[in-house]
Amino acid sequence: MKLVTGVIQPHRLDDVKSALEASGVRGMTVSEASGYGRQKGHTEVYRGAEYTVDLVPKVRIEILVGDEDAASIVDVVVNAAQTGKIGDGKVWTVPVDDIARVRTGEHGDSAL
Amino acid sequence: MELDTGVTAWMLTSASLVLLMTPGLALFYGGMVRGKSVLNMMMMSFGAMAVVGVIYVLWGWSMSYATGVGPEGYSLFANPFEQFGLGGGAIMDDAGEFVGEGLPVVVDVGFQATFAIITVALVSGAIADRVKFGTWMVFAGLFATLSYFPLSHMVWGGGLLSDAGPFVFGDAAPIDFAGGTVVHINAGIAALVLALIVGKRKGFGSEPMRPHNLPFVMLGAALLWFGWFGFNAGSAYGADGAAGLAWVNTTTATAAAIIGWLVTEKLRDGSATSLGAASGVVAGLVAITPAAGDVSPVGAIFVGLIAGALSAFAVGLKFKFGYDDSLDVVGIHLVAGLWGTLSLGFFATSTGLFYGGDFAQLGVQAVIALVAMIFAGVVTLVIGLVLKATMGWRISEEAEVSGIDLAVHSETAYETIAQGSVIKEVRS
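Output (structure tokens, whole complex):
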């Protein structure tokens, strides 16, 4: 089992969500995040005083998948989130030891 | 007394409009501070309403408009005891009839009280996020009593800075239609002095202190503009053409000031901002205040345009000189107030330079602005230092960092989702 995590541009969330649903993903967790990569922050000006804002708004999307699906789900997220500009974000996978479904107490693949 | 119902109705409306400016100011200021101190910022305005609203009827009116203390034309304040509590025939004669020619004096009391309230509230923007609420409340009473009431007597009550005083050069008598000196120069210089006495916020100049809610700021500016119709058009003391001229000049100058501010920041910073538009509104309103009844609408365009551009530059001074006038009371109220007062020397249709006058009016205006600045500056310095030595101004550094709302008022303005799930009722 793997956890696929993507940090993406907020305005791409709807497309990513639809693409994941179309590819058979049944659940996900979405949270607001802030951060920066190569695009760094941006500058805001209030009454002539400049503020450099390092952290820009992002959306973090997390999906638990079986080992065999991980690579294709990553591609789905990447394709749907891509605009080609700096700041599009990153997607990564990490192995997951165990998953439990709270409602039934099932463990492992059957809890996916 | 023959009652003029038209004038009386308009003055009651004007008083109500001006009262609305202070909650409007609370929004204007509240949106500009960080989310952790918005309640305290708004409370300083409401606190001013509480304190000044009470003392105005006790001795405020009497100190402003009863008999001046000292030689005629040279008085700095009127006798606070003569009409204490609006007695002494201030509003009612022995027969129990309301006094006043056309307009009952008691209506004027209400109108004037709202001016005193907003003047005190204006000062609070300079010391945002960091002062004890109790000290502020005491300051509000002392500043109104020792600076506002005397200045309103000097300018409008037949005192030193009125046309009965010594500063009348030929045809040129002091002009302050609705409070350029009494309200804006007074509040602006007090703001500068207090910002210096109280000191900077922790992190001023190094940590970001972004306005947390710009829609509040714009709503506040809109309410100020609306209320200012009472301020300026009400100061005509009539439901007539003079009030109409003040209304039109107020709107024209304010519109021009938005343009002045936005063009300045577009050229300098690259963007026309909403905070700039809201600030331009206030700069224009401030500048036209002393001039609203004495310039032409075209003159008002220039008064406003220059006010917007001047203040857009002036708000940067605090970084250059290192004083933390948090919400730019100096940059907007002092600078635009000074400009508006001086602008009459150029644009007054009676005696201004551009209307065939000589330098006399400009000289008169400069003198009354200077006297008002020195008077209010010295008075505020004394009050500020006395309060510093007795009650103290600053809250603790931890309280300032964690947020004055929670530390001083035991409240927070905003609930996050995470907070909501851990808050439980602990007592009923």
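The longest helix of chain A spans residues 70-81.
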